[in-house]
Amino acid sequence: MLTPNLVSRIVETALGEDAPWGDLTVELTTPEAAFVATRLVAREAGVFAGGPLIEETFRQVDPRVTVTELVAEGTPFIAGDVLAQIAGPARGVLTGERVALNFSQRMSGIATLTSHFVAAVAHTGARIADTRKTTPGLRALEKHAVRAGGGSNHRFSLSDAIMVKDNHLAALGADDAASTTAALAGLRERAGHTTAIVVEVDRLEQIEPVLAARPTGILLDNFTTDELRAGVALIGDRAIVEASGGVTIDTVVGIAEAGVDVISVGQLTHGARALDLGLDAA
């Protein structure tokens, strides 16, 4: 969630990186009294995200800079659309321009890519979710952008839920069906009834021993579409069914049509292209 304190800290870090000792170009070329009016303009179609970061960037650079007519998060747009009006002392606008654009271009790129995945599976009951494959320090922004694009958030951090993978099972000493069930059942007892437990499997024969321990969900990792259908049929309504592993816009429809509940897509955050937005003189 994008809290004001979080946004403030992230913007402060970005500005400290971009202008640690001030903006030398602006200080030597732009009169203090100069005023400029600009527009945030889309150079291509997409879905918008990053408004709070734009506002906070200019607030920190110069509170006299105004951001008005800012479109809402998740707003679709086409090339040429004006997404915000930004006006004020020229020094503040010029100094904050790149940081504000970096945030909005990156976040809008994620929102746009997410919207494509969501639209592709809209005829099914599958939900598109992100992963923890995010830029260190910017996870909250990127997961916010996924929601703006119509997607859902997976766990935010390792502290939020239990996800048991093959290495965890090995650490638990689970090397056959009986020991897998016993290890996961013991984990359920220690975790408590309010904690979600998702277990990753990569073979159909692993499903029944996992289900016997009553997990919240089962993640079918790198299954073919035929294997996904078989896995969904086997699990039924006994657990949430998630699919993951190399999901692309070309494969996501087949995965969704196999009947899974959730499709986690790392590409939403680690593979999104920054959208082309610009700050033009009004």
TrEMBL record:
InterPro entries hit by this protein: Aldolase_TIM (IPR013785), NadC (IPR004393), NadC/ModD (IPR027277), Nicotinate_pribotase-like_C (IPR036068), Quinolinate_PRibosylTase_N_sf (IPR037128), Quinolinate_PRibosylTrfase_C (IPR002638), Quinolinate_PRibosylTrfase_N (IPR022412)
Span of domain Quinolinate phosphoribosyl transferase N-terminal: 23-108
The protein's assembly and partners: Hexamer formed by 3 homodimers.
Catalysed reaction, written as an equation: nicotinate beta-D-ribonucleotide + CO2 + diphosphate = quinolinate + 5-phospho-alpha-D-ribose 1-diphosphate + 2 H(+)
Pathway: Cofactor biosynthesis; NAD(+) biosynthesis; nicotinate D-ribonucleotide from quinolinate: step 1/1
SUPFAM superfamilies the UniProt entry points to: Nicotinate/Quinolinate PRTase C-terminal domain-like, Nicotinate/Quinolinate PRTase N-terminal domain-like
Organism: Leucobacter luti
Keyword terms of this UniProt record: Glycosyltransferase, Pyridine nucleotide biosynthesis, Transferase
GO molecular function, one term: nicotinate-nucleotide diphosphorylase (carboxylating) activity
Chain's role: Involved in the catabolism of quinolinic acid (QA).
Family: Belongs to the NadC/ModD family.
Source domain of life: Bacteria
Protein name (record): Nicotinate-nucleotide pyrophosphorylase [carboxylating]
Transmembrane segments: none
GO cellular component term, pick one: cytoplasm
Keyword Cytoplasm: no
